[in-house]
Amino acid sequence: MTPTEMETRIVRYGELKPCCTAFIDAHTPGSDQKENFTIIGGGVSESADQHVHITETPGYNIGAAGQPPNCRNSLHSHTTAEVFFVLKGRWRFFWGRWGTAGEVVLEEGDIFNIPTGIFRGFENIGTDYGMIMAILGGDDAGGGVTWAPQVIEDARDHGLVLGENGRLYDSKKGEHPQEGVAPMPLLTDEELKAFPETPVRDVVRDYVARYWDLMALAADEPAKVIGAEGLLRDRPGFDVEFLTRGSLSETPYTLEAHEVLLVMRGHWRLAWEGGETVLAPGDTCAVPPRLAHSLAPSMSGEASLYRVMNTADPAGSTWRG
After folding, report:
1. What is the CATH code for 13-208?
2. Residues 257, 209: contact at Cβ < 8 Å?
3. Domain locations in the chain?
4. Which residue among 54, 145, 172, 269 is least packed, with the fewest CB closer than 10 Å?
C-alpha cells in the first residue's frame, strides 16, 4: 500500500467537514449550534447536506459531535450500540424519558458505552468548544434515530419537520414533505413504556470507563475496554481497546479484523511495507485487514489512543447487568 493509498483511509482532525443541519433539533434554541461529523460510514444523519469522509464501513460507523459551551444534543434512542469518548472538553450525559433518570459527567479521554433502548442526550458543560467521538454499531448504524416526542414537537415549532421517510424538511427554506409522506408519528404512551428509566448506579458501574484508569491498565499491554472480555463487558459488533506508550512495540503485527485507530493524545507513528505516516490527536485511521504494520508513539510525553475492531457479533446485541 502506497502512502497516497493510506491517506485515503485517514481523516485528519483539521480536515473534518461539519454539518450544522444533521438532526431535527438543528433550529431548536440550545441545540442550534451543534456540528455533526460523519467520519466512517453514513452514520445516522437526517440531512442530505452531511459530508461522509469514508463511505466504506467495517461493520460499524465512526462519527463525532462538536459543540460550544452550553449546547446540547436532544433526547434520542438507538437500537444498536452508541459509544462516545471525550476528545476535548467536559460533557454531561443524561438519560430517561425527560432526561431526568440519571446523568454522568465525562472528562477528556473517558468513554461511555450508552445502553441501547434508552433516551439519551448530552451537552458541553466546559468553557471551550468541545468534541466527542462516536462509534455506532452496524453498517447502517441502526437505520436512524428515535426521538423523544417533545423533541419532535419543539423542532416543528422552529421550522423543522421529520418525515416518516426519515428525511428532514426545513420550512425556513421552503421545504415540505412531498405528497404521500406524513410527518414522523410521535411515540404513544404505550410505546414509551418500552424505554426504561435506567438507574445511575447501573449505568456508571457497567458502562463508563475513566481515562486515567485506562492509562494504568494499558501500561504494559492494550487494555480491553469493550468486548466479551472487556472492562465494559459487551458484544455490540465491535471490540474497543485502549493503547498507551507501553502497550505496543514497534514490531509489525497483522490483524484479520478491520482496525480503526482513534488518537486521543500524543503523536503516533504508523508504519507498513510501502510507507509510514504520523497520526495526531483527533485523527482517525482505518487500517485494512491483513496489512502488516507497526504502531508506536513518535515522540516523548503522554500518548494514548482507542482501537476499534469489528467482530462477528450482531450489532444490536448488548449486555445488560
Report:
1. 2.60.120.10
2. no
3. 13-208, 210-310
4. 172
For residues 114 and 78, give the distance between their C-alpha atoms in angstroms, rounded to a whole number.
9
User: What are the tens digits of pLDDT across the range 194-251?
Assistant: 999 999 998 999 999 999 999 999 999 999 999 999 999 999 999 999 999 999 888 8
Three cell numbers at 228?
Answer: 466479551
Report angle CA 77, 148, 98 to the nearest 5 degrees: 100
Distance CA(147)–CA(226), nearest Å, equals 26
* C-beta separation of 93 from 204 below 8 A: no
- Identical fold for domains 13-208 and 210-310, yes or no, is yes
Query: 122 pairs with which residues across the strands?
Result: 73, 93
* Secondary structure (3-state) at 11: strand
pTM over 0.90: yes
pLDDT digits (tens, 9 = 90+) for 26-35: 899 999 999 9
Cα gap 28→20, rounded to integer Å: 12
Using an 8 Å Cβ cutoff, are 240 and 227 in contact?
yes
Determine phi and psi for 147, rounding to 5 degrees.
-95, 145
Closest among 93, 155, 79, 87 to 121, alpha carbons compared:
93
Pick left, alpha or beta for residue 213 (phi over 0 → left; psi -120 to 50 → alpha; otherwise beta): alpha
Cα 169 to Cα 31: distance, rounded to the nearest angstrom: 17
- What separation, in Å, do the N-terminal and C-terminal C-alpha atoms of the chain show? 43
pLDDT in tens, 126-155: 999 999 999 998 887 645 689 999 999 999
Distance in angstroms (rounded) separating the CA atoms of residues 134 and 114 = 11
- For the domain 210-310, what is the CATH code? 2.60.120.10
